[in-house]
Amino acid sequence: MTTPASDTMHESPDDLARHLLAKRVAAMFGLAPAVHDPANIPALHRLRIACKQVRYGLEMQLDGSPGKDSLLDTLGRFQTLLGDIHDIEIRRDLVRAERARIAGQSKPRNQKRERLDTGLQAYEARLNGRLIRTRAEFVRTWDHAFANGLRESLVSVTFHGGTARQ
Amino acid sequence: MDIGQHMYDPAWFKPLHVAARDLTRTLGDVRDLEVLMEHLEQDRDNADGVEREAIDHLLAGVRKHHEAAFALSVGELAALLQSAVPKSTARHFPVTPDKEGGGR
C-alpha cells in the first residue's frame, strides 16, 4: 500500500468499507421520497444505482450474519423492479422519439406512415400499462420492506456492525 | 476500484482507474443497446399486426446504433492495449501461476 489518495484515513480496509457503505446507505435513504413520486424519474434511476451499491457493499460485510440472505434478497428485489421500470421507460422514450420524428417530417403523410404511427401508438400504450403495473409493484414491495424493519436493519448493520433483523 | 483510490499511489492507479471507467462506459453503451434489442425482440414476439411491424421498425434503428457503438468500443479497446496502462498494471498486480500451473 502506498500514498493514500484521500486525506480521510481509515484504521483498516473493513473500516473504509463500512465508511463507504454508510455513505451509500445514506444516499439510498435520501432518495426514498422519490418512491412515491411518479414524476421523479431521474431520482428513481439514481435509487436503482444506490440499491445496487448498497447490496454489493453488504455482500462483502455480512458474512455469516443471520438475516443476511433476506436483506440481500429485498435489495435485489428492489433492483430488479427498478431495473424493469428503467427498461420500460427506455423503450417508451424510444417510441415517443420515433413518433415525434415521424410527425416532424415535412413530406405528406401516406398510408405507410399512418400504419407505422398506429403501430407505435399501440406499443406505447402497452408499455404505459406495463410501467404503471411495475411501478405499483415496486411501491408495494418498498413499503412492505420498510414496514418490516428494513431501515432499522440497514442502520444496524452499517453503522453499528450489528446483524440484519429481517 | 473506487476503494483502490484510497489505497494506491495515484501516479499509477489513476490512469488505470480512468481507463477502467472509460472502458466500462463504452462497453456499457454496447450492452445497453443489446439489452434494449433483447426486450424489443421479446415484445415483438408477443405482438402482432401493425404493432409488430412498428417494433420491427424500431429494432432496425437500434441495430444500426449497436453496430456503431460496437465498432467504437473495439477501437477504444485497441487504443487502451497500446497505451502504458496494461504494462503498468501488470507491474503492480503481477499474475502468478495457480496450483494447476495456469495464469488467472
Explained architecture:
The complex is a heterodimer of chains A (166) and B (104). Chain A is an all-alpha fold and 166 residues long. Helices cover 74% and strands 0% of the residues of chain A. Chain A has helices spanning 13-30, 41-61, 68-103, 111-147, 150-160. The radius of gyration of chain A is 22 Å and the shape is elongated. Chain A starts with 12 loop residues before the first helix and ends in a 6-residue tail after the last helix. Chain B is mainly alpha-helical and 104 residues long. In chain B, 75% of the residues lie in helices and 0% in strands. Chain B has helices spanning 10-45, 49-82, 85-92. In chain B, helix 1 (10-45) packs antiparallel against helix 2 and helix 1 (10-45) crosses helix 3. Chain B is elongated and about 60 Å long. Chain B starts with 9 loop residues before the first helix and ends in a 12-residue tail after the last helix.
SSE topology sketch:
The complex is a heterodimer of chains A (166) and B (104).
Chain A: H1 13-30, H2 41-61, H3 68-103, H4 111-147, H5 150-160
Helix pairs in contact in A: 1-2, 1-5, 2-3, 3-4
Chain B: H1 10-45, H2 49-82, H3 85-92
Helix pairs in contact in B: 1-2, 1-3
